[in-house]
């Protein structure tokens, strides 16, 4: 079960970073390269605990759908979403926010399990883990730009 951990410092208040990270419209803006859009559940604004969102996006040239649910939230420190339906066997994504003197440390911890048993494990090693890591890093950097107003 691969785990991707990435942290980035953002020169913005913790509350602002927290809200940007759970904003459906901002999420769509930060991942335009995958043509991602919310098509079910919460489709705009801030998602809250116990709510779901269904995303449609193009990954590896294939249109895919994924439904995630926020299963835990402590404002403005963290929230956790899990996949309830989609291409992965499972995933668990923790979004943490640590208040610093002049800003916020945003930490993503993404655990996932690929489908298809041994074939999925091979896909992880060959390309999927790197792809997911690049996706999380790219989105984090885009959030940072928005939060810092650049």
TrEMBL record:
Domain Coenzyme Q-binding protein COQ10 START, chain residue ranges per copy: 10-119
SUPFAM superfamilies referenced in this protein's UniProt entry, alphabetically: Bet v1-like
Recorded superkingdom: Bacteria
Organism: Rossellomorea pakistanensis
InterPro entries associated with the record: COQ10_START, START-like_dom_sf
Pfam families named among the record's database cross-references: Polyketide_cyc (PF03364)
Name of the protein this chain belongs to: Ligand-binding SRPBCC domain-containing protein
